Fold this sequence. Notes:
Elements (H helix, E strand, L loop, with lengths): L8 E4 L5 H12 L3 E6 L2 H15 L3 E5 L5 H15 L4 E4 L14 H29 L2 E6 L12 H21 L4 E8 L5 H14 L3 H10 L9 H12 L10 E4 L9
Parallel strand pairs: 1-2, 1-4, 2-3, 4-5, 5-6, 6-7
Helix pairs in contact: 1-2, 1-8, 3-4, 4-5, 6-7
Amino acid sequence: MDFGLKGRVAIVAAASKGLGRAAAEELAKEGCEIAICARTAADLEQTAKEMEAATGRPVFWRAVDVTKPEAVSAFVDAVDKKFGRVDICVTNAGGPPSKKFADLSLDEWRAAVDLTLLSNVFFAREVLPRMKRNHWGRLITITSISVKQPIDGLMLSNCLRAGVAGLAKTLANEYGADGITVNNVCPGYTLTDRLGELFEKRAKDAGVTIAEIEKQSAAAVPIGRLSRPDEFAALVAFLCSERASSMNGTTIQVDGGLIKGLL
Length: 263
């Protein structure tokens, strides 16, 4: 299947590892020009080298703190100047701390708002006007299954990722007539460093081994295992494609059937 993405310019945030990296690699394999960012330059440089070796395509990278609007603006402007356009933007950021309500400080709430919600706003403000000029664009937010079913112990994620879904749905309504689609993709239990950190904390709190937590989590998934990043990335690439031009304002989970709701 030809996704019609050859030559498209794609920005992927938090792409030095995990789901962001998987999404960037998948888009590169589909022929996109790739620009990635994350906080740590050394990690990004290494990731870019590995992606170039794996896909045969050059990767533009820059260290960016996505909680800083001026940094996001400078990055998107640099991508636009290098490639002459921005067609795709996959927003992403590291997850906020895993804590219950009573354990959270106001500073942690404010930091999580910047990281989990406002980082999406910063990218949207930069890329949507550029996409609108070309009458074509794809904005994908990487959120979490907590958008559809709150996860115990993840108060910040449960609250703020729901806000991201609301943002994306509203943007989909406002920009759909401009040839731009906006969709949310929600990973379930996926084999990433972030999941490892969550499992480690759960194991410590429960007084069991990480292996036991992994086994319990896999057993809760109808397919009987945890998801792989490349499975998640495949949906991201499809939603960016010409084939998905009428998919707009959706929130789709890649979770092996973990979420029990109908929608």
